[in-house]
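Recap from last week: sequence in, structure out.
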Amino acid sequence: MKRIFCLLIALFSALSLYSCSYISPKATVERGDALMQKKDYEGALVYYKEAVKDGDGNTKAKALCDIINAYISAQTLYNNGDYEGALEKIDSLKYDYGSYAIKSDMEDLVTKISSKLSVQRKTDKKLKQLEDFINAGDYEAAKETAAIIEELDLTVSQAKELDILTDELSIKSKAAEKKENTSVQSSQSDKAQQRPQSNEVQQNSQPDKVQPSSPNKNGSSAATSTSVLYHVRKSAGDSSSQIGAFASYDNAVKAAKENPGYYVYDENWNVVYPK
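Predicted structure tokens:
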């Protein structure tokens, strides 16, 4: 009898403790609502999950669980620079958050995400423009564009892409510069090789006037005690085109014939061939 009495007392105590600790689903949701008003969304989420766990089909608790989870996830993605993912997380919500205390914070987050996405898309266009300039070989424009992009607020992926493109730009621009320098040197060398070489006296400027040696009847110049130079060039004033100054009239005429468009001038800069 005494044993039964003890068991009854223990059972009564257990029921009393349960009745004191038990919180109804409605009360649990209300506690969650109170924390929502204080913007303690993670704390509120604990109570809403508890209300859903009771299995009473509390629609509000289910909706708020999804809304708060979406908000927390979107906030994390935003902080990590994944703006597309953050916006997608909010857009995928099945429930309308407009009638709950989280509305203002959710709308602020959406506004910040949209602003970042706008900048990100403009930056993506700039990166594409930089790539196009590099591919087209317009390295000066590419360098200017790269400098502009460096001043923008870049995501992690955009920063990596910029590093890749600037490395490519550096390599290609240096190669182009080296090629251009080689081309200039080659051109100068070709011009030097094309200029006829003569054992005669070479002179690129107007000589001092001396007594002329007139051609004889056969077109050859008669030897005199005074040295006469015959200049072969395109015009009297174009010293850069001169290919030689010859003591022999015949050699000067020969050089002019071998180079169409050239004339032979005497020491007074009169054309003596062709006449």
